[in-house]
Amino acid sequence: MSKPTLDIQLKTLPNAPGVYQYFDADGTIIYVGKAKNLKKRVSSYFTKTHDNGKTRVLVKKIANIKHIVVDTETDALLLENNLIKKHKPRYNVLLKDDKSYPWICIKKERFPRVFSTRRVFKDGGEYFGPYTSMKTVSTLLDLIKGLYNLRTCSYHLSEEKIQAGKYKVCLEYHLGNCKGACEGLETEAEYNENIKAIREILKGNFKDSLQQFRVQMKQFAKKMQFEDAQKIKEKIEVLENYQAKSTIVNPKISNVDVFSIMSDESYGYINFLQLSYGSIIRSHTLEIKKKLDETDQQLLELAITEIRQRFHSKSKEIYVPFKVNLGEAVKVTVPKLGDKKHILDLSLRNAKYFRMERFKQDKIVDPDRHVNRIMAQMKADLRLSEEPRHIECFDNSNIQGTHPVAACVVFKNGKPSKKDYRHFNIKTVEGPDDFASMEEVVYRRYKRLLDENQPLPQLIIIDGGKGQLSSSLKSLDALNLRGKIAIIGIAKRLEELFYPDDPIPLYLDKKSETLKIIQQLRNEAHRFGIEHHRNKRSKTALNTELETIAGIGEKTVVELLRHFKSAKRVANAKLDELEAVVGVSRAEKVYNYYNGK
Q1: How many CA atoms lie less than 13 Å away from 503 in the CB half-sphere?
Q2: Which residue among 224, 307, 348, 481 is least packed, with the fewest CB closer than 10 Å?
Q3: Among 403, 406, 400, 425, which Cα is nearest to 538's?
Q4: What region holds the UvrC family homology region profile domain (predicted)?
């Protein structure tokens, strides 16, 4: 498929947080921005009148738009920062100053210190972040300080110096904030247990700490020390509510290529995220048309080779959703959990969004391709022998057996064909019998199509379970159409699809396009049937009310409704208005009935 125009790209952007990149006609990135809602933010560039001259020039130069979808606005801010530093787009001024974000460091030393920093050194220390707000870092450090007694001094606490009595405890010790490691009053093992717990908190794993604090809270409460128990409870609430660091950046994930795949009957969509020094610096999605029945593994191996050559990637490791064969030179990792799995999931999200946007673009610029894909998908999902280009759906409608009606709606090429919709008044069934009603309308519908030599559908959908489906099959048998038209029933409660002579229902994925079209058919049939039922019921109700007036017959009712248009207007009419329509005698009867005389 050729590159979609800007107008089409704007219409198909997702309503999700992410980063957008503007490219000029030469394919150079000229601007990078973040958005809480990509569709609204990017569209605003092209719908607003910009006072800033630089912005007007920028908009004129935009030839292509790419985007990366992320989980939160915070992730978008961090990713925007990474991409601006990497590509230095001409029209970006914000964040170009190489602004650094705060990190939390666990220093590599005896009795490690925990502190904030804006610079990351390769000194063996552990760095967590980055965080978008210093307030967040301060809050987290205050939390850690309140939970655990850590030293804040910068002494070199070697075992020899402690034993020699080189240091003395400071005010922090006397305030109860430090246990006096400098004088050997706390063991290294005990201190390191606290560091281990802090490390888990910074990773976002609060389970162990929460469990420990809950035990402490119960112990304080048991001893009637309710103030101490309340303090622990507050710590637990802070831990539970605090959202850990972003998954967009992790300094331990360095110089890695991430690939994921999403495929359908005709195409494979492979997303590529390139990570350098823990930051995403590139995102690209490749669309591959299937020639035969290639597996996802075959498509992914082909795409990885193509993408790595195109972008001159030298990464020695790749993350993929399943094992692929790329030779000995590249390490293949299939992440199962943690930050690596989060990055892989992010890649898959972008592949899914790209696929959705392609579908939307197809509807606009290439509707035939879209229809062909949908039909092929429905044929495969529903196990049909041919594509369901013509589908008909039936639904019964009655309230406590009154005014039973049925509706038949028709979809052609996946879209409603309203001129082919039909209403049915039930003629041969007494009382509320959905099974018999369905048998009647299915017979009448296809008897008429056969008599008039009209084309038959490839698929019939019955709104109901096994009972309605069995009744419909009787009609097809009577017309000798059994096996010539595919027929299924859909039960409302669990969206089960029933097939003739198969006791086990089919369950489609709740998000599948096939199920959505079937639900649309069912809902449309229900709406169309209810509409007819209401009209019939209301007409009957009007006639019944007027006909109950003594001395007023059917002919008078027709005259009144033809003139006044509704029973309500008849009821509100003045005596002289009624006389002008039906004469003095009958007008008085109607007027007295409604006005209580």
Answers
A1: 0
A2: 224
A3: 403
A4: 262-476
Residues 6+ apart with CB under 8 A from 205: none
Neighbours of 63 (CB within 10 A): 15
Residue type, 220: F
d(CA 129, CA 139): 14
3-class SS at 392? strand
Q: Pairing between strand 331-333 and 317-319? A: parallel
Q: How far apart are CA 162 and CA 183, in angstroms?
A: 6
What is the residue whose two structure tokens read 């920028």?
58
Token look-up 């809480």 returns 36
The H or E element that residue 568 is part of is helix 567-572
Instruction: Please state the pTM of the whole predicted model.
Output: 0.46
Beta strands in 492-564 (DSSP E): 496-499, 502-506
Q: How far apart are the first and last CA of the chain?
A: 77
Nearest C-alpha neighbor of 394 from the set 450, 468, 467: 468
Copy the structure tokens of residue 62.
């935009």
Amino acid at 241: N
Cis peptide before 367 (omega within 30 of 0): no
- φ, ψ (nearest 5 deg) of residue 496: -85, 140
Residue with tokens 């850990």, as numbered in its chain: 244
Tens-level pLDDT at each residue, the chain (597 residues): 556 677 778 878 888 888 898 988 888 888 888 888 888 888 888 887 766 677 778 888 888 888 888 877 767 776 777 777 777 787 775 433 445 668 888 988 888 999 988 887 878 888 876 665 676 677 778 778 877 888 888 888 888 888 888 888 888 888 888 888 888 888 888 888 888 888 877 766 666 777 877 888 899 899 888 888 888 887 777 666 654 444 445 556 678 889 998 887 678 888 988 877 666 777 888 888 777 667 888 888 888 888 887 777 778 888 899 888 877 778 888 888 877 888 888 888 888 888 888 777 777 766 777 788 888 888 888 888 888 989 999 887 754 445 567 888 898 888 888 888 888 877 776 656 778 888 888 888 888 888 888 888 989 888 877 888 888 888 888 888 888 888 888 887 677 888 888 888 888 877 778 888 888 888 888 888 777 556 655 555 445 566 667 777 777 877 887 788 777 788 888 888 888 888 888 888 888 877 765
CA–CA gap between residue 524 and residue 408 (Å, rounded): 9
> With helix as H, strand as E and coil as C, how does 124-137 read?
CCEEECCCCCHHHH
Helix, strand, or coil here: 445?
helix
| Residue among 277, 295, 283, 287 at smallest CA distance from 259 | 283
To 5 degrees, how large is the angle CA 10–CA 13–CA 19? 105
For β-strands 459-463 and 390-399, DSSP reports them as: parallel
Q: What is the 3-state secondary structure (H, E, C) of 334-388?
A: CCCCHHHHHHHHHHHHHHHHHHHHHHHHHHHHCHHHHHHHHHHHHHHHCCCCCCC
Rg (CA), the chain: 36
Q: Which alpha helices (DSSP H) does 88-130 contain, by range?
A: none
In the numeric block, which tokens belong to residue 436?
Answer: 């018999």
